[in-house]
Amino acid sequence: MDREKNEICDTIGISFTQDRHGWSDLLVIQGGTSFSLQISDVFSDGPLGLLRLCDAILTNRPESVDFLDEPGGHRLTIYPDPGQQHVMTLEIRALATSDKTEATPVFSTRSKRKQLLTLLMAELWKLHHFHAEPSFQRGRSGFAHADTLLELNRMWDADQRMGPSILK
């Protein structure tokens, strides 16, 4: 069954895992379809990219983040719906191995801003708390963005339209 282009999707899930030895995975699930991105920490800072997307969702502005692999990668773009302030489009494009300007669309969905923000912030919150465990820290790059995450969560909590934050 094809989804109508303007339909707002509420069956989306996002998972971010920080693997050992400089790799991370981002999984986006919509309905029965999943899309997986592998991210090299050598070329991309996965948590920082997700924080940039969260900030853009909270402030309702467009943002693009490249998550690079070896070779190639993906570009995640979000942009607001001009007619519906509570809706954003999330797009994923595959980047060519030799030229980051060539990006082939592979996934697109329209979702509520608050749902996208909650999904991404929950993954970052989880990662932040996992890094408190010494056994989790072994073989992984650290979580250097705790202050940014906490400040963004405070902004979300205080936002009249998007708040309060579910992360306490």
Summarize the structure.
The protein is α+β, with helices and mostly antiparallel strands and 168 residues long. The chain has helices at residues 46-59, 113-130, 134-137, 146-158, and strands at residues 12-18, 23-30, 33-40, 63-68, 73-80, 87-95, 103-112.
Walkthrough of the structure:
By secondary structure, the chain is α+β, with helices and mostly antiparallel strands. Helix content is about 30%, strand content about 35%. It has four helices and seven strands, in the order βββαββββααα. The strands form two sheets. A four-stranded antiparallel sheet has the order 4-5-6-7. Helix 1 packs antiparallel against helix 2 and helix 1 (about 45-60) runs parallel beside helix 4. The radius of gyration is 16 Å and the shape is globular. The N and C termini lie far apart (about 40 Å). About 25% of the residues are buried. The model has no long low-confidence stretch (mean pLDDT about 90).
Tell me the overall shape: globular
Order of helices and strands: EEEHEEEEHHH
Strand content: 25-35%
Q: Report the mean per-residue pLDDT as an integer.
A: 90
Sheet with the most strands: spatial strand order: 4-5-6-7
Number of helices: 4
Q: State the distance separating the first and last CA atoms.
A: 39 Å
Q: What structural class is derived from the secondary structure elements?
A: alpha+beta
Main sheet specs: 4 strands, antiparallel
Helix coverage percent: 25-40%
Low-confidence stretches: none
Q: What's the number of extended β-strand segments?
A: 7
Using the CA coordinates, give the radius of gyration: 16 Å
